[in-house]
Amino acid sequence: MSTSSPNLLVTGGAGFIGSNLTLALQEKFPEARLTVIDDFRSGDFKNLRGYRGDFVAQNLATLDWREQFGNEKFDAIFHLASITDTTLHDQFVQVHDNVESFRRLLNFARPSTTRIVYASSASTYGPASAASVESNGAAPANIYAFSKTIMDNVAMREAQENPSWTIIGLRYFNVYGPREAHKGVPASMVYHLAQQMKAGQRPRIFKHGDQKRDFVYVKDVVEGSILALEANQSGIYNLGSGQARSFNELVDVLNKCLGTRFQPDYIENPHAHYQNFTEAGLDKVRSALGYQPAFSLERGVADYVQWLYGD
Prior knowledge:
Elements: E1 7-11, H1 16-28, E2 33-38, E3 54-57, H2 65-69, E4 76-79, H3 91-109, E5 115-121, H4 143-161, E6 167-172, E7 174-176, H5 189-198, E8 204-206, E9 212-213, E10 215-217, H6 218-227, E11 235-239, E12 245-246, H7 247-258, E13 265-267, H8 283-289, H9 297-309
Parallel strand pairs: 1-2, 1-4, 2-3, 4-5, 5-6, 6-11, 7-10, 8-13
Antiparallel strand pairs: 9-12
Helix pairs in contact: 1-6, 3-4, 5-7, 7-9
């Protein structure tokens, strides 16, 4: 970023990752002019405690960007707003809201070639048994993943047609951390299991706990997202921890952090389409953005538990 007082906009900035990113940008660029857009469908104002910028309450699927912002020039737009509930199966609503919101944003940003950093998803890879790399073809297993795949297609077509315009897609893996509680059911497994164990209950996981996830701490994906401000060219990159860890291992880590000794309560998996394995291949993002996750599962869960429950 060539200026210490950039004009930055974050869509979905009251949501889980969006609020963490917004507050991190405020800390990194104290002189920045910050604007958040959110319709509170999956966000909460409490996530932005201490925020000093502007806030626009609008639905991005219908927002007229020109009418709202006129000729205002942004140095970068972080687009994290979307319907994030993967259990919402209304195909029209998922695709319309996620894709058309993105298209409207791109139409606004195109004349000024404003840098776009947007949230894609690891779900675009579909079922996997080895580390997912960006050159893998998309294989979306649900409508949410399909909507993100279309966003990637649209973004890369725009980038190809406009070589001077930098558009960065970030495929977030299984993110957990502060400011996710408001999400309810779609909040991370780390959060739900921690809450169960803190309440004195055995953690409920699917039989037999050997499913593996790339659990990535929100502070790492925020750092990776900010690194995208310096990217030299358009591209799509994985943001994960680079390590697949089993549900059983997660229970062990939580037991250590919480000082508990719970055995898992194994239950049947009710989901027909379930990712039994996720892991981010990080070679491309390391070389292009210099991304290096700092939080192992042990370190991330310890930091999160401290944030959730204090001493």
